């Protein structure tokens, strides 16, 4: 019986040895991560949000529609790139769990925190919750039906 390699061996090797990481090189990883988060915040604040505002103005979209489409695409970008890394770099099976898990996070946590920090009472109708939940359930069921037999083809 052939034992598959563990998932950690699917990623590229680290530039530092284990001994170098023990002696403090892991701090360089942490500093790099902090720098990348800071750079991401600058890019989002200075370029992403203003460009979405211009696109919404030119397309004459309401704030609700723009938020539901463009900001949803922006919040789903992490799972897109995680899936791309999983498919093209590690050749692993991280895509489905990442996408479904991230969608649940987006639905529950982001919307919940937005409601908590809104600073005012947010009036919602039953229809929007029912509509969004129904489409999400249908999309997850369609995904399950497609990948049920571990074969995906056109």
TrEMBL record:
The membrane topology term of the UniProt record is: Multi-pass membrane protein
Please list every transmembrane segment annotated in the UniProt record, as residue ranges. 26-48, 68-90, 102-127, 133-149
Quick check: keyword Transmembrane in the entry?
yes
According to its UniProt record, where is this protein located?
Membrane
Q: Which residues form the Sodium/calcium exchanger membrane region domain?
A: 30-147
Pfam families assigned: Na_Ca_ex
Keyword list (alphabetical) reads: Antiport, Calcium, Calcium transport, Ion transport, Membrane, Transmembrane, Transmembrane helix, Transport
InterPro entries, per the entry: K/Na/Ca-exchanger (IPR004481), NaCa_Exmemb (IPR004837), NCX_ion-bd_dom_sf (IPR044880)
Q: Which reaction does it catalyse?
A: Ca(2+)(out) + K(+)(out) + 4 Na(+)(in) = Ca(2+)(in) + K(+)(in) + 4 Na(+)(out)
Q: Which family does it belong to?
A: Belongs to the Ca(2+):cation antiporter (CaCA) (TC 2.A.19) family. SLC24A subfamily.
What is the name attached to this protein's record? Sodium/calcium exchanger membrane region domain-containing protein
Q: What is the lineage of its organism?
A: Eukaryota, Metazoa, Chordata, Craniata, Vertebrata
């Amino acid at each position: 019986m052939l034992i598959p390699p563990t998932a950690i061996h699917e990623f590229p090797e680290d530039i530092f040895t284990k001994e170098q990481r023990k002696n403090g090189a892991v701090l360089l990883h942490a500093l790099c991560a902090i720098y990348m988060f800071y750079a991401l915040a600058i890019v989002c604040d200075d370029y992403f949000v203003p460009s979405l505002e211009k696109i919404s103005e030119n397309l004459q979209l309401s704030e609700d529609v723009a938020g539901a489409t463009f900001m949803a695409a922006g919040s789903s970008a992490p799972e897109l790139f995680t899936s791309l890394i999983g498919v093209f770099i590690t050749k692993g099976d991280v895509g489905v769990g990442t996408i479904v898990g991230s969608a649940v996070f987006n639905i529950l946590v982001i919307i919940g925190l937005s409601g908590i920090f809104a600073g005012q009472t947010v009036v919602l109708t039953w229809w929007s919750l029912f509509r969004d939940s129904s489409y999400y359930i249908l999309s997850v069921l369609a995904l399950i039906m497609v990948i049920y037999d571990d074969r995906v083809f056109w």
